[in-house]
Protein: TIGR02710 family CRISPR-associated protein
Amino acid sequence: MYHERPKENGRLIDTIALPLQNEDIAFEISELEKKVADLWSAWRNEVITPEEREQKYRQHLFPHVARLFYLREKTECQYDLLISTVGTSLEPIVLTLLTLKPTHTVFICTPESKALLEDIQTYTGLSLVRYDIVVVEKEDMTGVYEKVRYYVRPGHRVAVDITGGTKVMSAGATLGAVLSNPDIFYVSSQLDWQVRKPVAGTERLLRVQNPLSVNQDLEIRAALRLWEKGNYAAAGSVLLDMENAVEDPRRLRIWGHLAAAYGAWELFRFNEALSAMEVVLRCVTNYQRCEGAYGLWAYREKLERQLTLLRELAVMDRQSKGGTLDILQNLPLVSALVFSLWGTVCRLENQERLDVAALLLYRMTEILSQRRLALHGFDTSNPDYQKLGEPTDILENMQKLLRQSNLVVPHELPRNVALSHGYALLQIINDPWPVERLQKFSGQTNVRNHSFYAHGFQFPDKGEYHSKYRALMERLLQRWCEIEDVDRDVMEDGCRFFHPSEFATGV
Structure:
């Protein structure tokens, strides 16, 4: 639809685009203002026929008006498309067209105003391949709206000039532009009622603020509130959906991808989270001069640590094909996984969702138990008890330990190694990780077993959860970090998600 910009060859464009006669643009504008004022006064007071007056205005006055307008309003912005509503006056359309210099133009006109396009083409030197003509009825707001929406393309820089045409046409174009978010322009001027023309030299190109920008601010605040409540995926979706609806999408891009990364991270979709976090880090680097990457430049070191953690976690998708032992013997990966669970548990506790938090704590404890056994070459998904010693002795010791703890005693070594079995095995081989005797450990983990989301119909009591279950897991995690030389503070900070109050100031 859009074409390469050809060389302009019209008479008026040659006039207004001349190089500056003086390096001081302010001086030339001042001189032109005086000249236009003198020409306007003489033209306005001259006694001639209306036809002669119009011809003289276009030939002798308008070229200077256009040059003055161009010098005042010229922009470095390159527009792929200009959509312009056409009424009975060609001057504002010509001024906008020559100043914005779009690659392609769409004229929305009525059957009556279509005749004006020939004069517009003459003044601007616009070639046939550079414009489309759309004809609508002057009261057809919906038709104008639909045409604007049709011609606006994602990824193209579009301007909409609402100066010409009927009020209904301007309203339709505005509505289409507001929802599509191109730049909206209007040629403002002071009208001389005696001659029914704008006073020469008062024409200014105004860029109209999109009225939905206020609503966009409200949407951004709503998205950040979702973020504050831990609904990261929804917050990211809202922010990224708005990316193409704002003038400067960079802030929404970086915040939206960070929220999306956190949303995927909490759902353990690590590759998806990694892709989003990589976008965040690129944006942090590229946008560092834009309000400090919109508040995140100061936190780039932590973001880089989070990226490193996600790279470790993304390895799990590849290593899982080789068996769980490969995963469990990888300390950086296990550390990232355990503290990802721990970070999620802390966020769930803040939301008082203790039932789900209990499930994740249980799984975290399982992983720590599996990790300790894996260091002895024992894979809980495919147990080979000879890795831990003589199987007969192990069975005898396990039965004795489980019997003392009032737990179910197996008749043979279990093929499905439950948490209590793994914990018992670690006590049998004198691993330094267990912090409680098996009987007490089993009693404290029953918070999870009796949970509605596990095997029962109870919801965790807040006091019992924190005093027993949470306290036990805290000791187990701390002991594991000490044994395996894991920097708990660094890992906890890396898995703590940013709160909007840390970076989204002034929103």
Notes: The domain at 11-210 is CATH 3.40.50.10770 (Rossmann fold).
